[in-house]
Every structure is written in structure tokens, then in C-alpha cells.
Amino acid sequence: MRAVTSWNVAAFVAALALSTSAAWTPHEQAAPAATETHAAEPAAPWTDHAGVTLPRAHYVRIASASLVTDHLLLELCEPERIAAFTHYSADERARGYRFHGKPTIHDTKNVEAILALHPDLLFVSSIGDPRPVARLREAGLPVYDLGEMRGLSTFVPNIREVAAIVGAPERGERLVQSFVASMKAVAADIPRAMRKRGMFLSAYGGHFFGGATGTSYHDVLAFGGLMDAASSYRDWPDFSSEQILAMDPEVIVTEDEMRPRICEHAGLGGLRACSTLGGIVELDRELTVDPGLGMLEAAQRVRRAVYGDGAATGAP
Amino acid sequence: MRAALVYGVLLVALVGLVLASLLVGAGDLHDLGLRSTLLTLRASRLGAALLVGAALAVAGLVIQGLFRNPLADTSVLGTSAGATLGGSAAVLGLELLFAGRGPRGISPDAVLPVGCLLGALVALAIILVLLQRAGDLLSIILTGFLLSSLFLSLGSLVTSLAQERWELGRAVVSFTLGGLSATGPLHLALAAPLVIAGIGAAWFWAKPLDLLLSGDEEAASLGVNVAEVRRYCVLWIAVLTAGAVSLGGNLAFVGLLVPHALRPLLGVEHRRLVPVTALAGAVFVAACDLLARSLPARGEIPLGVLTGLLGAPAFLVILARLQKGAPHG
User: Fold this and answer.
1) Do residues A145 and A129 lie in contact, with contact meaning Cβ atoms separated by under 8 Å?
2) Is A198 helix (H, G, I), strand (E, B) or coil?
3) Which residues cross the membrane (chain B) (predicted)?
């Protein structure tokens, strides 16, 4: 009896100890050695948003697994140095043609498919599961994590980072200046007192989803000339009908085909946005989900739909 | 003779699966620069599939013997749900608390399996504490059911919190659907001790489990300490479940289907069933994983979905056969 207990407990403790000791293996933060370093470049490596270093090198087969870098690479990098884009961008109705002719990445989980592209650098924006990136790094592929996509506050630093890594910092700086200036110009002519209260809302399966402070949705509203009615919320909240009624925005910015889902939902027909002409602004989903350069066009469309044309709106 | 045939078939299937698993994938093995990397990735994935399958199948066998119920499953004790909750919470916590960098001393890569292990251990601790007070089967089943419900509710909360961030929500949902696509040697090292110890312990407890099949009183009269058998079998079922979930997520039907398929062929003696169940479970999950990455689909089909799709009809067929063979009246 005692022997049985001892045997089982000892086996359990040993298995647990072996298992947890594997987890406590020191985490290697350094990225794999890079190829063909520029002699003119300083040796100090870049550090990504996950704390992993990336060697300074002239990368010639750059793959993008991030919506943000898909569009940035087109702006900042020679086409022949781009190895792949995400399928999200390639599948876009309006802008997908810009990504044609290049392989696409469907899922970062498919490590083999990414390696088969032979990239020498992969850009990702913070993905929840760290395992695929760990496998890619183990396989010798340098991966640069751009961190979260939270609108202008993260996009502007991301532009500078990508530009520096692809060896075009001046081009990056020009893009930052023109993009920020263009965003500010969208509704610069609309006085603060005249601005309407608006919010972003989408509806799926009877549930309402917002995009509040700290997201690209909020930036699109703010630069498009609206006061964010959901500014007291953060991130991407779920809203109940009551919360939406309490905010009762004058304008709801949403995705294509969402108007009936919102305004015909029990209790929401009385919203000011639903009973006002132009109160519901429907944008292409491809624009609303773009936390990068697409924010400019989205802000311009919001401004145009709510206030009509006015400000000069030049694309970068 | 029959056992030798079953072993023969399973070993041939295993060899075929090992070869196919190493040869099939998105990458090209003719690419000399990538060959060793691809083989390492595929070998890790194959190892994970074998460990997960063996663990779940043996855990299912033990739990069915313990409860004398052929429909009992690892989910009965709440450890599957506990491990799944732990894994989901780890994915969420990694992003919210550690900004993707992982706590000091632990690789972010290992956070998810460690979370699964902790979740399963919490469930196990609760079960064992309650077993000290009331060790009867009904109490265990009720406790397990309540724990499962509690952990599933908390898991839903974690999923809803994760949904506030697009990629994080995808990661949590993807983990709960099960899969082995991003498994590496570290994960194997983390899960292997648990699975190997669990299978060894299942074999060790085989004789008392056989005696328990004839009822508690009968077993006690033959010298079996029923409470002790229960306590330790529950412990090892939880350990096996933790190892399996930490590698592949919560895969349906493996623990239910595999022992069922083998009993008509090999009888109910646990010492005979444990090794062959481990082998058959390993073969089943490795085959499902091979199918998951071979089927033409835009992304990879979640392994948990495949085991469910294949397991449910197969289980119904086995059940129909058993009912056909059962005496009426």
C-alpha cells in the first residue's frame, strides 16, 4: 500500500519535473544570422516588438504576413525584393490587383508553406499564438514582429521601422509626413463645434461590434471629422442594444450591407443615425479593416458622406 | 494469434504513416537547403500526433475501465476542459500581461502547453481533494461534470475577451479546435514525460482495473483497495489528458473510439489492451493529422474537426455492431 503510493507519487513528480524543466529552457532572443550584411550599415541589430533582434542586412526576399506591411512594401520597397503578400490583400476587390503576380501567405501556422517561398525576412503583426513564429525562427528565418495594429499611433512607427529595414528610411519619412498631413487635412476645415457624433459599428449574428479608442476605426472617425461617441470605450468592444441606444450617435460608420442589420434590429430603429438621411455610412469592409494606408481613404469617404466634399485630400 | 494480427496491422500502418508524414507537406524535400528543416518540422509534428493519440486513447481506456462504462471519456473528469481553459488563458495572458514576450525564464513558445498543464493540474487537484471525502463513482462523475461546465464557461469568457483583438481571437479559437501545425521539439519534451509516465502507470494499474470490472465489492473481496485504485487512476488520466491537450488541443472521440474498436478483437484485459490501445491511438491521430494537411483546402483543416468527423460515424458503426451482437431481453 505504502509502496504503491510512493511509486505513483514519485512517478508523477518525476514526470512533472521533467515536463516543466523543458518549459524553463532559456529563451533565445537572438534571431538567426543574416546574409550579406551591408558594409556601410552599423552593426547594431534592430529589435522587434516581441524583443527579438533582427540583424542589419540587405534583405532581398521579403515576405509579408501582415496587412500593414503588404501595402507598405509596395510603397517602400523594390518589387523584385518582395517574395509574398498576405492573401487578404491579394483578395481585395478594389486594391487586390496591386498584389497580383506574387505568391500569397494564407496562414502563419503553415510554416512549411512560408519556408517554401525562401524568404530571407518575414514581417508579422502580433499574432496571438507565438508557436508558428518560433518554428520559423528555429528554421533560420528572421522574423520581425511589428506589434499590434492600433491605428495611427502604431502605424507611423511601423512605417519608419519597415522603411529602415528595407533600406529606405528617407522614403519612409516622406511617406510618414505625407500620410499624416493628408489624414489631418481630411476634415481640417470642419470646426470642432460643427462636428457630429459618430461611432463605428458592425453586426454579426445579432451581436454588435465596435472599434473604439486605441484602434484604427477610432482614427478613421476622428480624422474623418466625427466625434467618437464610443470614446469612453477601448479596443474592439461588443455593444448591447442598450449601450448603442444610450450613445445614440448621429452617424454610424459601418461595413457594406450592414444598414438593415443595425436599423432593423429590435429597438434600434429609433436611433438618430437610422432615421437621418446619410446617418449610416457604409464602407467597403476591405477599407474598414485596414489599419494602415487604407485609413486615409476610409477617413476621406466618411468625411465626404457626412459633410460633403471640401478639404483637399491627396493620397500619399 | 488475433493479437499478433492486430499488432501486425497497426505496425504496418504506423510505418506507412511515418513515411507518409515525413514525405507529405507544403515544402519540397528536393530543396536541399530546406530538407533538414522540413524533416525536423514534420518529425516534430508526427511525434506530437503519436503522443497525443496514445495519451488520449489510453486515458479513454482507463476511464472506461474505472467507471465500468464504455461511453466514459476523458471529458468526464473535467481535466480536458481544465487543460483547454489553461491553454486559452495562457494565450490571452501572454498578449495582455507580457506583450507577447513571455514571463521571465519561459519561452513564449512554451507558455501555451504550460498553461494547459496548469489548467489540468488545477482540475486534478480539485478532483483529488473531493475524492478524499467521497470516493464513490457518482461523486466523481458529478464533480467532473460540474468542473467541465465551470471550465467551459470560463473558457467562453476567455474566448470572448480574446475576440476583442482579431488575431488573438483567432489564436484562441484555433487552439480550441486542436491542431499540431506549430509543434516543435520543445513541446514534445514538455509533453513526452507526462504521456510516457501515464501509459506506464496505466499498465501498472491494469490488473486492479480488470478486477474492478466485476464490481467494487467483488474487487474488494479479492484484495483490491478500490479507493486507492480510483485515486491513482484519476491522477494518471489527468496527467495523460494534460499531456495530450498541451500538444494538440482538445481532440474529440479518440479516447472513446480506439478502446471500443479494440475490445471486440482483444477482449477486456487491460494489461493486454494498454499497449495496443496506445499504438492504435497513435496511428489514428497520425492518420488524421496526415489527412488534415493533405486535403485540398485553403487553410489546414483543424485536427479536432477531423477526429470528430471521422470518429463519430465510426463510433456509431461500432456501437451498432455491439448492439447487434448483444443478447436481447
Assistant:
1) no
2) strand
3) 6-25, 46-67, 79-98, 110-131, 137-161, 173-206, 234-261, 273-295, 301-322
Q: What is the per-residue burial (b if ≥16 Cβ within 10 Å, else e) of B241-280?
A: bbbbbbbbbbbbbbbbbbbbbbbeebebebeebbbbbbbb
| DSSP structure class, residue A227 | E
In whole angstroms, give the CA distance from residue A30 to residue B269.
Answer: 52
pLDDT of the residue at B184: 85
Helix, strand, or coil (residue A239): strand
- State whether residue B213 is helix, strand or coil: coil
Q: Which chain A residue has its CA at the smallest distance from B162's CA?
A: A128
Cross-chain residue pair B200–A11, CB shorter than 8 Å: yes
Cell of A269: 430603429
Q: Is A38 on the interface with B (CB under 8 A)?
A: no
User: pTM above 0.90?
Assistant: no
Q: Which of A88-92, A189-193, B70-74 has the highest mean pLDDT?
A: A189-193
On chain A, the residues whose CB falls within 8 A of the CB of B175 are: 129
Residue A209 pairs in a beta bridge with: A202, A238
Q: How far apart are CA B323 and CA B313, in angstroms?
A: 15
B112 and A131 within 8 Å at the Cβ level: the answer is yes
| Amino acid sitting at position B38 | L
Q: Classify residue B203 as exposed, middle or buried by CB count within 10 Å of its CB (0-12, 13-18, 19+).
A: middle
Q: If you measure CA to CA, which chain B residue comes closest to A10?
A: B197
Residue B302: closest C-alpha in chain A: A109
User: In angstroms, rounded to a whole number, what is the distance separating the alpha carbons of residues B88 and B112?
Assistant: 8
Query: Which of B99, B109, B191 minimises the CB distance to A134?
Result: B109
Q: A43 and A24 in contact (C-beta within 8 Å)?
A: no
pLDDT in tens, B79-132: 888 988 998 898 888 877 776 666 766 777 778 888 888 888 888 788 778 766
Q: Which residues of B touch A129 (CB under 8 A)?
A: 91, 112, 171, 174-175, 182
Read out DSSP for B62-74?
A: HHHHHHT-TT--G
Q: Does B46 touch chain A (CB under 8 A)?
A: no
Q: How far is CA B109 from CA A138, A153, B100, B283, in A?
A: 11, 28, 10, 26
The C-alpha atoms of residue B163 and residue B10 are separated, in whole angstroms, by 42
User: What is the 8-class DSSP label of residue A96?
Assistant: G
Alpha helices, DSSP H only, in chain A? 2-23, 67-76, 87-90, 111-116, 131-138, 152-165, 169-185, 216-223, 241-247, 259-263, 272-275, 285-288, 294-307
Q: Are A249 and A197 in contact (CB under 8 A)?
A: yes
